[in-house]
Amino acid sequence: MVTGDNGLTAAAIARRVGVGVGGMRVVTGTELDAMSEAQLDDLLGSGAEVVFARSSPEAKLRIADALRAQGEVVAMTGDGVNDAPALRRADIGVAMGRSGTDVAREAATMVLTDDNFATIAVAVEAGRRAYDNVRKFISYIFTHAIPEVVPFLVFALAGGAVPLPLTVMQILAIDLGTDTLPALALSREPAEPGLMDRPPRPRTQGVITGRMLARAWGFLGLISATLVMAGFFVTLRHAGWQPGAPTGPGTPLNHAYRQATTVAWLGIVACQVGTAFAVRTDHASLRSVGVFTNPFLLAAIAAALAFAAALVYLPALHGAFGTAALTPAQLATVAPFPFIVWGADETRRLLIRHHRAGRNPAGARP
């Protein structure tokens, strides 16, 4: 606590809000001025609860700078003209909207229009939820780059021995048809359990991280691509296809080939469903947030599946998208894909939670 009030007054208020209940050190402005930078760093890094009383604007600025130098994420609250330098220097300055001065409000990043400190926690929770949902949206979109690209790589590397597993129109049907609504629905996800128990993220951390890309491209994406290509080859092989056999229009295998591309396309759609449920949480289980807590996502998935059914079973769309009606057995090939994708990521998150719990039993994330 940093304040310009008298030390006794500051200590009494600090105890009322839960600071220093088990003991505190009160440092006056005179004592702070006599401290060297190293002594101040030791005090702030000791873990003791400290109340800085009779603090000047320069002292508040010095404390904010010292905390930032130690790698801490600093939020500073204030309402007066003398608070403005520290409000500006902190990672986030919070000014009072009703009682605060114009200078303090201009220097701050956040203004509390109700002058209620509890609003800060509400705002932080809303910000963290929005930030997490943006990351979920990105993870969902990035994941399906792999199963869309791998079929073209297989076709190119096979030198003509393997027909193209997906057509360009089918890719467009994914990107513009089945991808959009579930991705947008992820922005309405409820807050993940333990959201407010996390420490602030490093100020240098961007929205897209290496861990996110590893999960999207190296885990969920590879699983989806493997399932999609497996469905494609199983369908072709069941029709008697051999590598290099012609599958173009007019050949005996053309219909089977169109069914195989349809299985591959529908497999990506099915994997999208599994991915949508998987990325709803970053580390917690899906059960902790509830399967049905985002009705927008459920409606978006239903719309995507209806669109997929139209492409598969409406003859008028077969010519444009290169699809063909599938048999019940071929549909059964694709049906497990969402559960495999979601189940694999659920297992991965479970192992991570157990690892963190073993490393830090007292402070492990839920």
Notes on the structure:
By secondary structure, the chain is mainly alpha-helical. The chain is built from 17 helices and 5 strands. The strands form 2 sheets. Strands 3-4-5 form a 3-stranded parallel beta sheet. Strands 1-2 form a two-stranded parallel sheet. α6 links the parallel β4 and β5 (110-112). α7 runs parallel beside α11 (210-238), α8 crosses α11 and α11 (210-238) packs antiparallel against α17.
CATH class of the largest domain, anyone?
Answer: Mainly Alpha
Arithmetic mean of pLDDT:
91
Provide the domain count: 2
- Counting DSSP E segments of at least 2 residues, the number of strands comes to 5
Give the CA-CA distance, first to last residue: 30 Å
Radius of gyration: 29 Å
Structural class by SSE content: mainly alpha
Helix/strand order: HEHHEHEHEHEHHHHHHHHHHH
CATH architecture of the largest domain: Up-down Bundle
Q: Predict the CATH topology of the largest domain.
A: Calcium-transporting ATPase, transmembrane domain
The level of helicity is: 55-70%
Largest sheet: 3 strands, parallel
Helix count equals 17
How would the global form be characterised? elongated
Question: CATH-wise, what's the superfamily of the largest domain?
Answer: Calcium-transporting ATPase, transmembrane domain
Low-confidence stretches: 362-366
- Strand proportion, as a percent range, falls in 5-15%
